[in-house]
Design goal:
67% helix
C-alpha cells in the first residue's frame, strides 16, 4: 500500500513541473491589464450577442431557403427581413458595442471613471474608422458601417488601448482642466476629460485621415490571414489538450487558454455569421474553429462518460450516486467543476491520462468531422452553456451530424475511461476496506 502511494505521488510529481511550465506563461498573459479588460469587455457584450443570435435563429426559421426550402415557421415569413434587422443592429455591428464595453472595463482597471473611458474609447473608434463623410445617392451625408462587424474588433481594441492610456497619462501628469471643488463632480469630470479627448481625437485623426491608415483594412489584408493559420486541426487539438492538462491539476483551463484564443475566435464567429447572412452555405463558411466547437466534444467525451460510470458503480461506492445526482444537471450545460473537483479528476493518477487522451482525440475527430461536413460548421452564436446536442444542431444550421456528434464523443470517452475507471474503483474499494478494518 505504501509502495502504491509512493508511485502515485511520483506520477503526480513528475507531471506537475511540465504542467506548470505550460500554465505559467499563459497565466501571466491572462493577467495583463489589457488582456483582462478584453476578456471582461467581451463578457459585457454577451447580452447583445445573445439577442443577435436568437434573432438570427428566428430568421433562419422564418425565411425560405435557409434551413429548408420553405420556412419552418411560415407565419413569420413576411417578417423575416425585419427579424434580420435585429441581428444586423446587434451582432452585425458588434465592434462599437465592444469598444464601449472594453473602454469601460479597461478604464476601471486603470482607476479611471468608466463613463470617461467608454466615451473616450468610442470617440477613438469613430475617429479610427472614418476619414470622410460619405454621401448617399440623395446627397445626404452618412457614415458607412462596413467595418463595424467582425472587421472592427481589432479597431475597437486599438481604440481602447489608445484612449485609456492617453487619459491615464494625462490624469497622472495632471494634464487636465481642474475646476473648483464647488463645481458638481459630473461637470468637473467632463471638463477634466477635455484635454485627453482632444489628444485622442488629434492622434486618431492623424492615423486615419492624414496617414490614411485604415486599421480594419490592414487587419483584413495582413493580420487576419496570419491568424487564420491557427484555424487548423493541429492548433485546435493543441488548445484542447492544454485545456485538459490545466484542468487536471486544478487550474481553470478554459480561462487560461481562452485568454489567448479569445483574441481571435470572436472575430471568426462573426465572419461565419456574416457569411451566412450574406447568403453563403454553411458548408462553405470560412472557419471550422469557432468558440462553440470545443463544446461539441470537450466535456461530452469526459464529463458525460464519468457520470455514466459513477452510476454504474454507485452500489459499490454510494458516494458516486450522490455526486452524480448533483453533477448531472450542471454537466449538461458544460459546467463541470463538481466533477473536476468533486470526484475528483484533478490530480487523480487513474483519471488524468484518460481525461487528457479523450480531450485530445475528440478534438482531432471533431475538427476533422466539421471540416468534412459531417458536423455542420457553427454559424449561429449561442450561449456557451447551450447543451452540446442543441448547440451542434442549431448552431450548425440544423445539422443532424451536430446533433448526434456529442453522443458519439460520449461513447468514445466511455471506451477510453473504462479500464482506468475500473482500476480507480478497485483502489477506492481497497481504501474503503482498509478504513473499515482500521475502525474495527
Amino acid at each position: 500500500m505504501a509502495q502504491e502511494a509512493t508511485e502515485k505521488k511520483s506520477f503526480v510529481d513528475a507531471m506537475m513541473p511540465f504542467v506548470y511550465k505550460i500554465a505559467g506563461p499563459l497565466t501571466k498573459f491572462g493577467q495583463f491589464d489589457f488582456v483582462k479588460a478584453i476578456t471582461n469587455g467581451m463578457v459585457g457584450t454577451i447580452g447583445i450577442t445573445m439577442i443577435g443570435s436568437l434573432a438570427l435563429v428566428m430568421f433562419l426559421l422564418a425565411a425560405d431557403g435557409q434551413l429548408t426550402e420553405h420556412a419552418l415557421l411560415p407565419f413569420l415569413a413576411p417578417y423575416a427581413g425585419k427579424i434580420l434587422l435585429i441581428q444586423q443592429l446587434s451582432l452585425g455591428i458588434l465592434a462599437p458595442y465592444l469598444a464601449i464595453s472594453l473602454g469601460s472595463e479597461y478604464a476601471q482597471v486603470k482607476g479611471i471613471s468608466s463613463t470617461t473611458g467608454a466615451i473616450g474609447t468610442f470617440f477613438a473608434f469613430i475617429m479610427l474608422n472614418f476619414n470622410a463623410i460619405a454621401a448617399t445617392e440623395e446627397g445626404i451625408g452618412a457614415l458607412t458601417i462596413n467595418n463595424w462587424g467582425s472587421g472592427g474588433i481589432i479597431t475597437a481594441m486599438l481604440a481602447a488601448a489608445i484612449a485609456i492610456n492617453i487619459i491615464h497619462f494625462c490624469y497622472e501628469k495632471n494634464i487636465k482642466i481642474t475646476l473648483p471643488d464647488s463645481v458638481p463632480p459630473a461637470i468637473g469630470g467632463s471638463f477634466s476629460a477635455v484635454i485627453p479627448y482632444a489628444i485622442i481625437g488629434f492622434l486618431c485623426w492623424i492615423i486615419r485621415t492624414i496617414l490614411d491608415f485604415d486599421v480594419a483594412t490592414w487587419v483584413t489584408t495582413i493580420l487576419m490571414p496570419i491568424l487564420s493559420g491557427a484555424d487548423n486541426i493541429g492548433m485546435f487539438t493543441l488548445s484542447q489538450a492544454l485545456t485538459a492538462i490545466l484542468w487536471a491539476v486544478g487550474l481553470h483551463g478554459d480561462n487560461i487558454v481562452g485568454a489567448v484564443t479569445g483574441t481571435f475566435l470572436p472575430a471568426w464567429d462573426l465572419q461565419n455569421v456574416e457569411f451566412l447572412v450574406s447568403g453563403g452555405a454553411i458548408s462553405a463558411a470560412p472557419h471550422v474553429w469557432t468558440q462553440g466547437l470545443s463544446r461539441l466534444s470537450m466535456w461530452t467525451c469526459s464529463a458525460w462518460p464519468l457520470l455514466i460510470l459513477m452510476m454504474k458503480d454507485s452500489k459499490k461506492l454510494p458516494q458516486f450516486k450522490a455526486l452524480a445526482a448533483v453533477a448531472f444537471p450542471p454537466a449538461i450545460f458544460s459546467i463541470v467543476e463538481p466533477i473536476i473537483f468533486g470526484l475528483p479528476i484533478m490530480l487523480n493518477p487513474y483519471l488524468i491520462i484518460p481525461f487528457v487522451v479523450s480531450h485530445t482525440l475528440s478534438a482531432i475527430l471533431t475538427y476533422a468531422a466539421t471540416a468534412a461536413g459531417i458536423v455542420g460548421k457553427l454559424c449561429v452564436s449561442l450561449p456557451w452553456a447551450t447543451p452540446a446536442p442543441l448547440l451542434g444542431f442549431a448552431g450548425g444550421g440544423g445539422s443532424i451530424g451536430g446533433l448526434v456528434w456529442p453522443f458519439l464523443m460520449c461513447a468514445m470517452g466511455l471506451v477510453i475511461f473504462w479500464p482506468f475507471w475500473n482500476a480507480y474503483v478497485e483502489d477506492e474499494l481497497k481504501k474503503a476496506e482498509a478504513a473499515e478494518a482500521d475502525a474495527a
